[in-house]
Amino acid sequence: MTSGPVNIYEYEAIAQMRIGKGEYDFIAGGATDEITLRRTRAVLDSIMLKPRMMVDISDRSMSTTVLGQEISFPVMLDPAGNHSAAHPDAEIATVQAAGKAGTIMVLSAQSSRTLEDVAQASSGPIWFQQYFFRDRGLTLEMAARAEEAGYSALCLTLDAKVSPKRERNIRNNYRGSGGSPNFAHLNLSDPSESFALDGPSGVRDIRDPASTWPDLDWLAANTRLPLVVKGIMHAEDGRQSAEHGAKGIIVSNHGARYLDTTFASVEVLPEVVDSVQDRAEVYLDGGIRRGSDIFKAIALGARAVLIGRALFWGLAVDGEEGLSAVLEILRDELDRTMGMCGRSTIDSIDRETIGTVSPLLSLFPQAESFR
Ligand SMILES: Cc1cc2nc3c(=O)[nH]c(=O)nc-3n(C[C@H](O)[C@H](O)[C@H](O)COP(=O)(O)O)c2cc1C
Question: Is this prediction's pTM over 0.90?
Answer without folding.
Answer: yes
